[in-house]
């Protein structure tokens, strides 16, 4: 997991550096990797979805103009962008642009962001894709049994009955399938 986290962080850092060099496509990569987290920060401070969307737009406009100021030696990309988001949201509060539903500025500072980091979301998406990819390498019977047991919550007994096989056979299929699945997952790390 640490390697995947490092990889996600490096991809985001590379996109930020490409953006600083003027590559327009890099902004889309940065947006995809960070928009959910940054929107959450803006929303927690402003308390209004439309206000948060406006603040988020300001964040990416500012980023487009100031990407060359990003210094990977001083901050991680997500920390730097989270600071942008927090500052843009507070600026909206101070300027009076925010609607009345926004929280007072004094309450905006200590709000902790409990949403998963963009890096964690990337890691989870990669892990999910790897699990499904590894499942697809299994033979049809154990693959279907594992998917049904673990994704639909069916018991081994229910699976054995629905497939008209002895319970021991079902357990063996799933155990061998899980062993191969584990080997595939470990090979991909």
Automatic annotation (TrEMBL):
Sample GO molecular function, one term: sigma factor activity
Statement: the UniProt record of this protein carries the keyword Cell division: no
Keyword annotations of the record: Sigma factor, Transcription, Transcription regulation
GO BP terms in the entry: DNA-templated transcription initiation
Database matches in CDD domains: Sigma70_r4
Key word Transcription regulation present: yes
Domain RNA polymerase sigma-70 region: 31-97
InterPro entries from the UniProt entry: RNA_pol_sigma-70-like (IPR039425), RNA_pol_sigma-70_dom (IPR014284), RNA_pol_sigma70_r2 (IPR007627), RNA_pol_sigma70_r4_t2 (IPR013249), RNA_pol_sigma_r2 (IPR013325), RNA_pol_sigma_r3/r4-like (IPR013324), WH-like_DNA-bd_sf (IPR036388)
RNA polymerase sigma factor 70 region 4 type domain sequence ranges: 130-181
Family, as annotated: Belongs to the sigma-70 factor family. ECF subfamily.
Record-linked PANTHER family: RNA POLYMERASE ECF-TYPE SIGMA FACTO, RNA POLYMERASE SIGMA FACTOR SIGZ
Name used for this protein in its record: RNA polymerase sigma factor
Gene: rpoE
């Amino acid at each position: 997991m640490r390697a995947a986290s490092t990889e996600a962080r490096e991809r985001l850092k590379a996109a930020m550096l490409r953006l600083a060099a003027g590559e327009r496509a890099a902004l889309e990569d940065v947006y995809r990797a960070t928009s959910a987290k940054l929107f959450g920060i803006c929303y927690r401070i402003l308390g209004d979805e439309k206000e948060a969307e406006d603040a988020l737009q300001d964040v990416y406009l500012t980023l487009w103009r100031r990407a060359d100021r990003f210094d990977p030696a001083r901050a991680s990309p997500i920390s730097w962008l989270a600071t942008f988001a927090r500052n843009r949201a507070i600026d909206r509060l101070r300027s009076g642009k925010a609607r009345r539903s926004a929280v007072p500025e004094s309450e905006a500072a200590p709000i902790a962001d409990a949403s998963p980091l963009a890096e964690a979301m990337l890691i989870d998406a990669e892990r999910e894709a790897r699990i499904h990819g590894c499942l697809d390498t299994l033979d049809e019977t154990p693959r279907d049994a594992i998917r049904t047991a673990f994704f639909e919550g069916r018991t081994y007994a229910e699976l054995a009955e629905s497939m008209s096989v002895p319970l021991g056979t079902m357990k063996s299929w799933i155990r061998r399938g899980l062993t191969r699945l584990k080997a595939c997952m470990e090979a991909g790390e």
